[in-house]
Design brief:
Strand content: 15-25%
Oligomer: single chain
Structural class: alpha/beta
Distance between the termini: 41 Å
Radius of gyration: 26 Å
Helix content: 25-40%
Number of helices: 12
Number of domains: 2
Length: about 375
């Protein structure tokens, strides 16, 4: 595929020349840094694992006292030393002093190339040949693309999110190569990246109450089906916006106290139960509480759907096969937390075994059932 710039030049009858930007000075406390940018505006070019990339690079960069400066973006990337929202001319000045620039293909990558700054270019919605930096020698530019599912999306939105299949260790290795710093291999191998890995989930088991430190707008999932103390339950539900999971009916007087914060009530139901009164569902509706019945046993679905035909009924977390093979060095990351009595667990399986502050992969059905939330890797 021909380069876009070459096509524009040919069709307009002009020659390609270096871009001219009048740099505007911006002070930094160091001259020893790399720059990074992520595309928050174009979903298909947004790479979600830069925090893992920077964590892998950390020991190498610290040894050389190299800082990481983020240029632009609505969200600060975890692991950067400085995040700056500047004018394009100020970004140009910062780029001119950078040891290397990494980011999704954008104007900054081409500008870095024009300034002879090494680049690591991440492609998410087009072929590298169509938009790679061309203002510097090819040896100064490393281009990384996914193994395309036939072809890129060529769109702002990629339903397959192909950019997410690029492994962070590959980007980290490429950055070290661009800096000519690599001394020892990065001992990290991605095994599985769950589709929901980047979703922040906070679950609490209401056996005791303690205030939570939460990002703004974070909804708390109260797992009354795991454990229950009425006072702790009510305090969580009065203090935060909540979704509640329960394996028995919560009494109407209790629900009325928390209705203003309760978004959805999930009730685990069984076919052997006595029929839940219609008046209970009517009370929930009048309180603007969404109710969903959950079923653990798939065989119970037909009977319950027949009994409660106007109530949403869903199967709960069907068993899953392991998405990858794991060894004794396998570990995992998760944005999901289960909190009880001040202790944090990374999965239901870890909570069930009392393994707080533990990121070892557990080869159990309960662990794999939540694997969509996990980033599993192998490391020495």
């Amino acid at each position: 595929m021909p380069h876009l710039l070459e096509e524009y030049a040919k069709n307009l009858g002009v020659k390609i020349s270096l871009p001219v930007v009048n740099d505007h000075f911006f002070p930094l406390i160091t001259d020893n840094y790399i720059t990074i940018s992520n595309d928050d505006e174009v979903e298909s070019k947004h790479y979600p694992y830069y925090d893992i990339v920077l964590n892998l690079l950390k020991p190498f960069l610290e040894e050389e006292d190299i800082k990481v400066v983020q240029l632009g973006g609505k969200t600060k990337i975890e692991g950067v030393d400085v995040a700056l929202n500047l004018s394009f001319k100020q970004k140009s000045f910062i780029l001119s002093k950078s040891l290397s620039h990494v980011g999704s293909d954008s104007a900054l990558n081409h500008l870095a190339s024009a300034k002879q700054v090494p680049t690591v270019n991440i492609f998410g919605n087009t072929f590298p040949n169509a938009n790679r930096p061309i203002f510097s020698k090819p040896s100064l530019n490393i281009n990384i693309a996914p193994k395309w599912d036939k072809k890129p999306s060529f769109s702002n939105v990629d339903p397959r999110r192909q950019i997410s299949t690029i492994k962070p260790e590959k980007i980290a290795e490429s950055i070290l190569k661009s800096l000519k710093l690599k001394k020892i291999p990065i001992s990290f191998k991605t095994l599985h990246a769950g589709e929901k890995f980047k979703q922040k989930v906070v679950e609490v088991v209401p056996t005791s109450f303690a205030p939570l430190s939460l990002p703004e707008g974070q909804v708390v999932i109260v797992r009354a089906d795991y454990g229950f103390n009425e006072d702790a339950f009510l305090r969580f539900c009065k203090s935060y916006k909540v979704v509640v999971y329960a394996n028995q009916l919560i009494q109407p007087h209790g629900l009325k106290e928390i209705a203003h914060n309760l978004q959805t009530l999930f009730i685990f139901a069984e076919a052997s139960w006595d029929t839940i009164p219609t008046s209970y569902f009517k009370m929930l509706k009048n309180s603007n509480i969404e109710c969903v019945l959950l079923v653990r046993e798939e065989k119970d679905l037909p009977a319950l759907r027949n009994k409660y035909f106007d109530i949403p009924i869903r199967p709960y977390l069907a068993p899953k096969d392991p998405p990858c093979k794991t060894g004794e060095n396998a570990r995992f990351l998760s944005e999901k937390r289960i909190i009880e009595d001040g202790k944090e667990y990374l999965s239901y399986a870890h909570w069930e075994k009392g393994l707080d502050k533990n990121n070892e992969v557990l080869d159990t059905p309960e662990y794999w059932r939540e694997s969509d939330h996990f980033y599993i890797y192998e490391s020495d």
